[in-house]
Design a protein that fits this description.
37% of the residues lie in helices and 25% in strands. The chain is an alpha+beta fold. Strands 1, 2, 8, 9, 10, 11, 18 and 19 form an eight-stranded mixed β-sheet that branches. The radius of gyration is 21 Å and the shape is globular. The N and C termini lie far apart (67 Å). The relative contact order is 0.16.
Length: 404
């Protein structure tokens, strides 16, 4: 059995690595585990919103990331009827009034390297199979190849993304939550790739959208995601790959990808967006990022929440270590902090998705947006900053969308 750590973090994606970075900076002894060796690919849309850029800049990573990413200053929306509108990224903060697209193969490795440079220890490939409560903390049981090993720690942090096996085994999740289904591939050799990132509602199941996120002037992350939950779940498709393949056959996508070729495999993946009802802690255990359901219920974006919740978790844990107190009340306070930060947003986004992500409303909203700058700004504040969601649900905005 190893020497005790202050915290063992399971999952070295953005949420886990950010938590490790901030805890290590505070002088704590941190072990970060992942079932894959890095660099490793991660199925995702690869977009960094202004919110994500702020945290990455604070971590000292933004300049490095920008050497491997592609910057975009606008978003192109395409309605189910084919009408388009272009919207600028909000100028909420001029330092971050854009998005960066960077493959997760590169992004996650950079954040992990920052955590290690800050003092965290990293081990992989290690598959965690159990976390058991002890008198003074936890014992994390894991396999490394054919060998079983254990790690002692005062706290455990679970940052396993959409992989729910450990959460289900520990009883933190009683059943698998409803998820968004998504699928993506990289395409190279796109000869006429439009400026900006594209969010397309033509040819995809609603609620949902397709995306084209350029990572270079000729290469893009191309994907589709749709919500298999609520009433929509009754008739939503079951296979994201089939939806993706059908979407690529619509005329607009055929024109865009004419002459291009698929660069790498098509990958499907689930996305958890259930934070409003999800657990965020257990005995001597806290959850960050998608493991706590922290992915936006409208956009499917989760990197920003992973980074933010990683920082919040580290701040909360640092205070717990300083006080030497690991009670349920202390853990409940972490949940309360997350609820204060995100609960209202997620509840409103659930309503927004139900109200807006259907063909008649999207067609009207995009048509109205072509005529009204204020509406375009509103849309982008919601998509990029997760602000003004209530404004989108107001009678005045709804009347503007309905009547132009």
């Amino acid at each position: 059995m190893s020497e005790p750590y202050d915290a063992v973090i399971i999952g070295a994606g953005p949420g886990g690595a950010a938590t490790a970075h901030y805890l290590a900076l505070a002088g704590l002894r941190i072990l970060l585990l992942d079932k894959f060796s890095f660099p490793r690919d991660k199925t995702c849309g690869d977009g960094l919103t202004p919110r994500a850029l702020r945290i990455l800049d604070e971590m000292g990573l933004l300049e490095r990331i920008q050497r491997e990413s592609m910057r975009h200053d606008l978003v192109r929306f395409t309605a189910p009827n084919g009408r388009e509108v272009n919207a600028d990224i909000p100028m909420r903060d001029a330092r971050y009034s854009y998005v960066e697209i960077i493959p997760r193969l590169a992004l996650d490795h950079l954040i992990l390297e920052r955590a290690i440079a800050s003092g965290a220890t990293f081990e992989s490939p290690v598959r965690v199979t159990d976390i058991a409560r002890t008198q003074d903390g936890v014992v994390v049981t894991a396999t490394r190849g054919k060998r079983t090993t254990t790690y002692n720690a005062r706290m455990a942090v679970i940052a396993t993304g959409a992989n729910m096996a450990l959460l289900l085994k520990l009883g933190l999740l009683k059943k698998q939550p409803e998820v968004v289904l998504a699928c993506r591939a990289y395409y190279e050799g796109i000869s006429d790739l439009p400026e900006g990132v594209q969010c397309r509602f033509d040819g995809v199941p609603l609620p949902g959208y397709g995306w084209i996120f350029p990572v270079s002037p000729t290469r893009a992350n191309v994907g589709v995601g749709f919500f298999q939950m609520g009433l929509a779940g009754r008739w939503a498709p079951d296979n994201a790959r089939e939806v993706f393949d059908r979407w690529l056959q619509i005329p607009s996508m055929q024109r865009l990808l004419a002459g291009a070729w698929q660069d790498g495999p098509v990958r499907g993946y689930p996305i958890r967006v259930d934070f409003a009802k999800a657990p965020t802690y257990g005995e001597r255990v806290i959850l960050v990022g998608e493991a706590a359901g922290l992915v936006n219920p409208v956009t499917g974006e989760g990197i920003d929440y992973a980074l933010e919740s990683g920082k919040l978790a580290a701040e909360h844990l640092t205070a717990m270590f300083a006080a030497g107190e690991f009670s349920t009340d202390r853990l409940r306070a972490y949940d309360a902090q997350l609820r204060s930060e995100y609960q209202r947003l997620f509840t409103l986004c659930d309503r927004l998705r139900l109200l807006y992500l259907n063909a008649p409303i999207i067609n009207r909203a995009i048509a109205a947006g072509t005529r009204r700058r204020a509406l375009r700004d509103l849309y982008m504040n919601i998509v990029m900053e997760n602000d003004d969601v209530m404004a989108a649900l107001s009678p005045r905005t709804l009347a503007t969308v309905a009547f132009g």
